[in-house]
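In this supplementary section we document a worked example of the pipeline. Step one takes a protein sequence of length 133 as its only input; no multiple sequence alignment statistics are reported here. Step two produces a three-dimensional model, which step three serialises into structure tokens for compact storage. The input and output of this example are shown verbatim.
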Amino acid sequence: MHERRVARAYRIDLLTAIAVYLVLLVASIRYGRPLPDGPLRTAALLAPMVGFGLMIRAIARHVGRIDEYQRRRLLESLALAFAITGAATFSYGFLETAGFPKLSMFSVWMVMGASWGGVCIMRALQDRRTAAP
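The serialised model returned by step three reads:
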């Protein structure tokens, strides 16, 4: 029962943060890009980060609500994903010096998400194998 309440609270927090992010992102693109260079344009283009900050808050609250075992598993998975992301982006940095095209910093987030997803899938498969009789 507690796990369901925690999961529900997390989903509400995270989905609210994502909604704020998306609204601010659309507004930022629509109204911020055409503005002349200056502090107002910079603020408008950074506005979606308010939603991103709310996502960080939702995740931090979730980590604080879950039990020790879940917290450990989550943080281990994140640590592995961060290490994979670091290795991949650092390696690509060397490839850029060899003439590979420069990538946007947005691509790091994609690598992070894919790494985290991959780690979670591998751990779930490993758990299934060890739990099987």
